[in-house]
Structure formats: structure tokens, C-alpha cells
Write a structure and sequence with these properties.
With 112 residues, the protein is of the alpha+beta class. The protein has one domain. 52% of the residues lie in helices and 19% in strands. The protein is built from 3 helices and 3 strands, in the order ααβββα. A 3-stranded antiparallel beta sheet has the order 1-2-3, with helices on one face. Helix 2 runs antiparallel to helix 3. The protein is elongated and about 70 Å long. It starts with a helix and ends in an 18-residue tail after the last helix. The model has no long low-confidence stretch (mean pLDDT 90).
Length: 112
Amino acid sequence: MNQEFLQSVAGQNLDRRYRALKETLAGLGWLTHGSVTPNHPGHWKWTTKVKSKTVTLALSQEQARLFQDAIANHRKLESIIREMRAISLEVLLKSAPGTRKKTGRKIIPKMA
């Protein structure tokens, strides 16, 4: 990997952002996906997909709060990963020379 881009101001900014995202990942708590909705007063349900099947589980008020926090953490995780992928792509493309582009040669199809 060519270190020239990473030593530029833009490269250093991307590297700093990437490292900050890694630190944020380490601080995330419990994770789950799905949704928590009220079932009836004082009762909640958690719904998610497992192997293309919908699974629903009854929750207490306290469990619902824990699940909501874990779902929020999962969404944050997904957002962080998307940003890390975008940064990685930019750094990888700019850190090494690419292939030569072909000239504007036009291919004329043969007429039968």
C-alpha cells in the first residue's frame, strides 16, 4: 500500500475518522435486530426474522427497554460499518495506482 495518500491531509482525516469509528464500535453494548412494539398496557412484543420466518416474543416492560437499547445499538453498528466501508473504499482506491484506462476505441459491430 502506498503511504503517500495516507500522509496527505485528506488521508490523515480519513484515518482519524476510521479510528474514531473503531473506538465507537468497542463501546457498543448488547445488540439485536427486530422491533419492539406495545402489545397491550404494560406488555410488549419483540418481532424479528429468523431464517425467513417471523418470530415474536412477549416482553415485560423492563425487557422491552433492554431490547430497545440493543436494537438502537444494532442500528448504530450498521451505520458505523457502512461509513467504515466507504472510508476503506476511498483509501484503498487512492493508495495504489489503478489500471490504465483504455483509449476511446469504438468497436463497430459487424453487419450481417
